[in-house]
Amino acid sequence: MAVRPYIVGNWKMHGTRSMLSEARAIDRAAERLIKVEVALAPPFTLIHATRKEAGLIGVGAQDCHAAEGGAHTGDISAAMLKDAGAGFVIVGHSERRADHGETDADVKAKAESALAVGLSVIVCVGETEEQRDAGKAESVVARQLKGSLPTADGAAEKVTVAYEPVWAIGTGRTPTTDDVSAMHRAIRKVLKDFYGEEAGAKVRILYGGSVKAENAAELLGADDVGGALVGGASLTAESFLGIIAVAAEMQEG
Ligand SMILES: O=C(CO)COP(=O)(O)O
């Protein structure tokens, strides 16, 4: 990995205030691991407290509404996230696409609303097992990217892409290194076409799906993998720091 790897923990719908001790422990250790950029996306209810408790790592959200405000009971705007201390927001996670019927256009609108208030975004894409088996993985991901990526001025500088094959999320199954490399190369091509050679070359591409310390070296070592988006293994400081340590070692080596 040429640039500083970015390791992001997505806590999904896990965590009450008792879990802040994990965030604190991650933050303390992350201070020593200056070779790795570390961030956590806790549930909405913990964003403010995590920001206060963990001053060194990045803190973000897992979703936002596309509108600035209004009659949207139960929803959270990008401005609210920023006010709570978030620096970024994950949009288009496959669990939201599946559970809430989010389309690429919805994801793009959310990303634009986040950029408009100064948040960075992690745009998630990834194929289902059926789509991979049908040989359509790259075309599906390309289509998701073209429909989901924000196009506002300077968007490329605030965007990270996370490639998360749906069938690898929470299953313990992972693609081969060759498959990850091929997909990340394909994503890079789309990014360059979309944002232009120079801007598209700078966007970070993370891999996500069953990343743990044991497979991190292999997955992070695939072509053009700029870091990882980690679910289950980010829930304890011990397992998350294991991944961070692998990423740090790869930087040193
Ligand atoms: O969806 C993910 C992160 O956003 C990945 O989850 P797991 O690491 O639990 O497979």
UniProtKB/TrEMBL annotation:
A GO term for molecular function: triose-phosphate isomerase activity
Query: Where in the sequence is the active site?
Result: 93 (electrophile), 164 (proton acceptor)
Q: Which UniProt keywords apply?
A: Cytoplasm, Gluconeogenesis, Glycolysis, Isomerase
In terms of Pfam families, this protein maps to: TIM
Q: Which domain of life is it from?
A: Bacteria
Grouped into one coarse class, the protein's main location is cytoplasm
* Metabolic or biological pathway: Carbohydrate biosynthesis; gluconeogenesis; Carbohydrate degradation; glycolysis; D-glyceraldehyde 3-phosphate from glycerone phosphate: step 1/1; Carbohydrate metabolism; erythritol degradation
What residues does substrate bind to? 10-12, 170, 210, 231-232
The record's SUPFAM superfamilies line, in alphabetical order, gives: Triosephosphate isomerase (TIM)
- Tell me yes or no: is Cytoplasm among this UniProt entry's keywords: yes
Subcellular localization(s) per the UniProt record: Cytoplasm
Catalyzed chemical reaction(s): D-glyceraldehyde 3-phosphate = dihydroxyacetone phosphate; L-erythrulose 1-phosphate = D-erythrulose 4-phosphate
Q: Which InterPro entries match?
A: Aldolase_TIM, TIM_sf, TrioseP_Isoase_bac/euk, Triosephosphate_isomerase, Triosephosphate_isomerase_AS
* The enzyme's E.C. designation: 5.3.1.1
PANTHER family registered for this protein in UniProt: TRIOSEPHOSPHATE ISOMERASE (PTHR21139)
Task: Name the protein family.
Answer: Belongs to the triosephosphate isomerase family.
| Quaternary state and interactors | Homodimer.
Physiological role? Involved in the gluconeogenesis. Catalyzes stereospecifically the conversion of dihydroxyacetone phosphate (DHAP) to D-glyceraldehyde-3-phosphate (G3P).
What is the name of this protein?
Triosephosphate isomerase
Q: Which organism is it from?
A: Alteraurantiacibacter lauratis
Gene name, Swiss-Prot/TrEMBL? tpiA
